[in-house]
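Fill in residues.
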């Protein structure tokens, strides 16, 4: 059975690129640049992993992280951020305990694929 991933980034090019990479790796992928649409997808589907941008509107990646963990605590959630210092995010122990990993932009897409594969194996 194929693992299902949700990718949400308000930069549509990043969102689409990541979705394409995950699909090429054999994952079933839903993706959207709209965090409100992502909230609906989270309520409607069960994901094995999610990749959320940190800074989005109206819902942030942290809002989506909390939402998905309330619905599916076993889902691995990766937070990517180009705006905020990852060290500051890492200081939030509650966030660190919920997220599978916190990743700085720019990031190596192949490395992200490997991290997701390890968590889902």
């Amino acid at each position: 059975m194929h693992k299902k991933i949700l990718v949400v980034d308000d930069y549509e090019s990043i969102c689409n690129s990541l979705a394409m990479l995950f699909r090429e790796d054999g994952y079933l992928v839903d993706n959207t640049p709209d965090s409100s649409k992502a909230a609906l997808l989270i309520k409607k589907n069960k994901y094995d992993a999610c990749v959320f941008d940190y800074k989005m509107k109206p819902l942030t990646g942290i809002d989506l992280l909390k939402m998905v963990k309330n619905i599916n605590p076993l889902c691995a959630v990766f937070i990517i951020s180009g705006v905020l210092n990852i060290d500051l995010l890492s200081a939030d122990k509650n966030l660190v305990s919920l997220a599978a990993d916190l990743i700085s932009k720019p990031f190596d897409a192949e490395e992200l694929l490997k991290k997701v594969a390890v968590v889902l194996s």
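The domain at 4-113 is CATH 3.40.50.2300 (Rossmann fold).
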